[in-house]
Automatic annotation (TrEMBL):
Membrane topology: Single-pass type I membrane protein
Subcellular localization(s) per the UniProt record: Cell membrane
PANTHER family (UniProt xref): LRR RECEPTOR-LIKE KINASE (PTHR48063), RECEPTOR-LIKE PROTEIN EIX2 (PTHR48063:SF100)
Species annotation: Carpinus fangiana
Leucine-rich repeat-containing N-terminal plant-type domain location: 43-79
Keywords: Cell membrane, Glycoprotein, Leucine-rich repeat, Membrane, Receptor, Repeat, Signal, Transmembrane, Transmembrane helix
GO cellular component assignments: plasma membrane
Alphabetized Pfam families for the sequence: LRR_1, LRR_6, LRR_8, LRRNT_2
Major subcellular location class: membrane
Name of the molecule in the record: Leucine-rich repeat-containing N-terminal plant-type domain-containing protein
Residues spanning the membrane: 785-807
Family: Belongs to the RLP family.
Amino acid sequence: MGMIMGRKTSFLVVLVHWYLSLATILCMFTYCHGNPNVLCRKRERAALLTFKESIVDPSNQLSSWIGEECCMWKGIGCDNITGHVIQLNLRSPYDPYTAYEDFERLRLGGLVNDSLLGLKHLHYLDLSSNCFEDTTILSFFGHLQNLRYLNLSHACFVGGSPHQLANLSNLHYLDISDLSLQIDNLEWLSHLSLLEFLDMSYLNLSKASNWLQVMNMLPSLAELHLSACELDKYDPIPYVNFSSLVVLDLSSNWLPDSTFDWFQSLTSLVTLDLSENYIQSPLQAAFQNMSCMRNLYLSYSNLSSTMLNLLCNVSTLERLDLAYNNIQGVIPDAIGSLSRLRYLVLSGNGFEGKLPRSLGNLCNMQFLDLSDNKLWGDVYGLLGNSSACIVGNLKHLDLTLNKLSDLAQNQIHGSIPSLSFGNTIILASNNFSGPLPLISSRIRYLDLSNNSLHGSLSPLICEHKDLSKNLLSEELHDCWMNNSQLEVLNLGSNKLTGKIPSSFGSLSTLMSLSLYKNNLSGDLPLSLQNCQYLEIVDMSENHLLGNLSIWLGHSSANLAALVLRSNRFHGNIPQELCHLNLLQVMDLAHNKFTGSILRCFGNLSAMVRLDQDTLAYFSEILTVHGNPLSLVTKGTEHEYNTIDTIGLVTTSIDLSSNDLIGEIPKELTNLNGLRYLNLSNNQLHGKIPDNINAMNLLESLDLSMNNLTGVIPQSIANLTFLSYLNLSYNNFYGRIPSSTQLQSFSALSFIGNHGLCGPPLTPNCVGDDTPLELHQDSGWIDMKWFYMGMPFGFVVGFWGVFGPPAFNKAWRSAFFKFFNGIKYKLFGDA
């Protein structure tokens, strides 16, 4: 019996022990506090929230930082087992080089709170492309000793040499490029022995002459970027060992000739960028041991013709950029021996003569740019020869700004070459003339713009994309039925006539349609509603007419830019346009639209909030499609072309020069992301909405030549980005609101409003919001109040004079003595 009891007791002890162990394990995974489903550590969540409090976040990047589960917040990464925060990525989505305006306006700012020190397990920290105010912040980063990745580039940090970073002995990746640091010694870097990636580009290292010595002490370094660091000297060292270095960027420096003496140790180098240097010494020895070299960038480096001949022996090359050097003469035939070459740029040199046929042997070539040279003559060997294997993979060909001429007969021998390769051909801005050549439907992007191609259009035009700015004439053929893969069509700036073909509706994958500046007429064909992927539609400056089709709002959900200015459209603007949630440019100016401005325009979500996804969407489609977008902004027409403005992002509504009536709907002020608004030259009345300042990104506002009235709201002074304002020729009155910005505008911005006063106008205000000269109706109202007030004024005046003598004896005696005295002086004793 005792044995049984003992066994039961032992079993219970084991059971209890097992239960307690399980509870302990569960407690570990749920942290014995709060919601058991929350992975985030409470202290680390508090540290992040304290950090957030000191951050200025104009684009609401940290809007997800609410609730208990910080591991689900944007930019936060946690260990899946321990729940510790190990990653903080707040890199700005706005690139300072390709989207500078957005980078300046929408990046994070404020102070970086040292509460980040509470994230003791942090491995990854990226605060790049923001602009923080704290000038001493670099010092505490040295206490985050578990960091393996640190990126502080383009973040406005300033100060001295960041020697505290020497404590980060686990660091593998360091990017402190484009900061305002005063660095005169790089010895602290030698303590980061595990460093594999280092970018210090755009730092002034002219006083840090030990840079080569320090880099030589980093045995694991594989990628080094020292672009634009003013490396015009260095302390010599007896031995250089960069055997682990794979990528080296020394571009935009003034490297001394002795630099290239140690290049022979770069035996593992795959990518070398020496562009924008002034290289005077011969480089033959420098490239002797670079048996792994694949990518070589030497543009703008003062190189001579011998350099290209030398590089024709580097058989491993896949990318070669020699743009804008002093290389003269013909392109050597030996270039055809670089069989691995995929990317070749020889633009902006002095090459002349014919294209070498050996280029046709580069079977792996994908990107070829020979623009801005003096090439001429026969292109048949490159483009038309069926034995030239270059046509197999070529995707981009740019022969712009040469002297290649007349595809039909002139200097090309034999038949017209058939362009049957790749997906991108750019032959713009040459002297091509005659009819269009035979071109394969494989080509996805063809640019023959800015030439003199002319004559009637053959059905061949139905196969291709950019034939803008030529002299093409006659009607568009109704021949687009077999082009289901066409994505971009640009026939702008020609002399095309007739109606838009109904077969355009067969272009089911079309994303960009540009027919601007032609002589097209008629209605928009209903078949266009089949083009459900349209993102850009530009049919401006034609003779199109009719009501605007409602299908635009139903069938074109991806539409980002709708430009129909300077046509003959009439009727009400259809409410269906309010369904275009991705619309960022709407230009319906110079038509005959009637009715009022739609209140639902305030719901155009891509203009309500300029968030990261919307910015990226519009930037991408402009960059990919490459079609110029002609818009009138700030009173001037601009052609936005992604060749010149990569990453352009704009938001604009232009309804000017129509017959619109009614008031400016207050719902328009919901468009917090709108930059350009033009409602001028209509018949609008009423007041400017009081909360106009809610449109806080507005850069241009034109309400001129309407019948608007009332005082200009004081809130307009809060539009800090406003650089163009035109309120002329309305019926505004009162004082112009005071602000440095508003008073900086010309008086022409307010001319034609006879009731306005105050700077920049010359009439001074008698009082706040006091009209100087109102229209006739307002004058009648004032006269009515004058006559109504006369009896009251008479009574007050009468009793003010005669009341005191009537009720006060002393006043009465003085009163009559005064009048008796006057009587005596006037009439004497008579």
